[in-house]
Amino acid sequence: MSEIQRGTHLPRGEGESVWLGGDLIEVKLASEATGGAYSMVEVTIPPQSGPPPHLHPNVDEALYIVEREVEVLLGDGTTRASAGALAFVPKGSVHAFKNVGTSPSRVVVIISPGGFEKFFLEAGSPAIQGSTPPEGEPDVRRIMEIGRKYGFETRPLPGSNTFSEKA
């Protein structure tokens, strides 16, 4: 019986995890478990951190804020989103999110179609329970090269938002 037919259970804190740009990314549901339909990751974001403005030409994303508050960039505008809020990002839309609080926030990201979670696993550094992000600056050139394979395209910061440049 395939994993798709029997279902999957993954307790909190489990799943393949990596550090990427200071954020902890846990793959909660890989695309193989959904026949490629979608995947799901949970991102724990330190204060004043988050991914840079970017887009995915072939991927839709739904961002569900689990804990704290994040600032979400959608196109040219930003909005504050607290726990329980959802932001939908259609494929090709410039977006980003940033933890604007003083303690870590958590965001669940549902990615459709699945497969983009492999970018995180390939570009990130393995994380084991209780570990901290790797020391030093991330290898932005390497991350961007891997990102291109998965359709990750960064964009310049819109003049009106508060995001800082970070890869």
Largest sheet: 7 strands, antiparallel
**SS class:** mainly beta
Between the first and last Cα atoms, what is the distance in angstroms? Answer: 41 Å
**Helix content percent band:** 10-25%
Number of strands: 12
What value does the average pLDDT take? 87
CATH domain class: Mainly Beta
Radius of gyration: 15 Å
Instruction: State the domain count.
Output: 1
Overall shape: it is globular
CATH fold name, please? Jelly Rolls
Beta-strand proportion:
35-45%
Spans of at least 5 consecutive residues whose pLDDT stays below 50 are: 160-167
Sequence of strands across the biggest β-sheet: 8-5-10-3-2-1-11
The CATH architecture category equals Sandwich
Please write the string of helix (H) and strand (E) elements.
Answer: HEEEEEEEEEEHEHE
Give the gist of this structure.
By secondary structure, the protein is mainly beta. 13% of the residues lie in helices and 37% in strands.
